[in-house]
Design goal:
The chain is mainly alpha-helical and 93 residues long. It has helices at residues 3-16, 42-56, 67-70, 74-92. It has a single domain, classed as Orthogonal Bundle (Non-ribosomal Peptide Synthetase Peptidyl Carrier Protein, Chain A).
Length: 93
C-alpha cells in the first residue's frame, strides 16, 4: 500500500470535511471512517467522492453496492483509487 497515497487521502478527508480538531496523522489507516470511526455520514461520503474525483480522477457510481466497501477505511480507499487508476491507464493504452 502506498503510504504517500494514504497520507494524501487523510489530508483530503480533513480538508474537505473541515475537521478542525483532527490531525491527518492521527487517522488510523485501517480504522472505520463511518460510525464508530471518524463518525462520517452519507453527506460526508458525497463530499469526499467529489474531492477524490477532482484529485485522483476516480469516481464511484451512485448506487454501486461496493461504495460502502470503498469508503470503509483509508486502506480501502487506497486500494480503490489504485485499482481505478490502473484500469484507466490500461484502457488508455
Amino acid at each position: 500500500m502506498s503510504d504517500q497515497l494514504a497520507d494524501r487521502i487523510k489530508q483530503i478527508i480533513v480538508e474537505t470535511l473541515a475537521l478542525e480538531d483532527v490531525d491527518p496523522a492521527t487517522i488510523e489507516t485501517d480504522a472505520p471512517l463511518f460510525g464508530e470511526g471518524l463518525g462520517l455520514d452519507s453527506i460526508d461520503a458525497l463530499e469526499l467522492a467529489l474531492a477524490f474525483h477532482k484529485e485522483f480522477g476516480v469516481r464511484t457510481q451512485e448506487n454501486d453496492e461496493n461504495n460502502r466497501e470503498y469508503y470503509q477505511s483509508v486502506a480501502s480507499l487506497v486500494k480503490f483509487i489504485t485499482e481505478k487508476q490502473a484500469e484507466a491507464a490500461t484502457s488508455a493504452s
